[in-house]
Amino acid sequence: MATNNRNVTLTGLARRFVDDGLLDEETAKDAFLQASQNRIPLITYLTQNHLADSSKLAFSAAMEFGVSVMDLDAFLPEMMPEKVVDEKLLRKHNALPLYKRGNRLFIAVSDPTNIQALDEIKFNTGLSTDAILVDDAKLRAAIDRYLE
């Protein structure tokens, strides 16, 4: 990838991934630029291109944002609420409704910085949303199974 990385200053998750030893500086800068150009989350770009282990990325992101990581394997698909969120929104935001409690919908996401996903789902469902951080690779597979 022939991108000029000299002017890129790593912050946030990209910096955290370098500090945690998951990526070297140049790979992180290039991935950051490519993810931005492709308009996809950095975590998704890294896992789709096999640049870092998705479970390690999830734990690193959890440490950065002070949140917990849930294992999607612990959730039974038949317990997940059906037809609560439009398929297009789920695919667009790489999100999955895990459970509903009262007027709150708990959403699995792999990118803790994607506040737009929660806001859009909240607007479309009329439910308050809470994010639950999960492994990106497992999330994409779970979304495919959920929408079958």
UniProtKB/TrEMBL annotation:
Domain of life: Bacteria
A Pfam family: MshEN
InterPro entries noted in UniProt: T2SS_E_N_sf, T2SS_GspE_N
SUPFAM superfamilies associated with the record: EspE N-terminal domain-like (SSF160246)
Domain Type II secretion system protein GspE N-terminal: start-end pairs: 65-146
Protein name: Type IV-A pilus assembly ATPase PilB
Species per Swiss-Prot/TrEMBL record: Marinobacter nauticus (Marinobacter hydrocarbonoclasticus)
Taxonomic classification: Bacteria, Pseudomonadati, Pseudomonadota, Gammaproteobacteria, Pseudomonadales
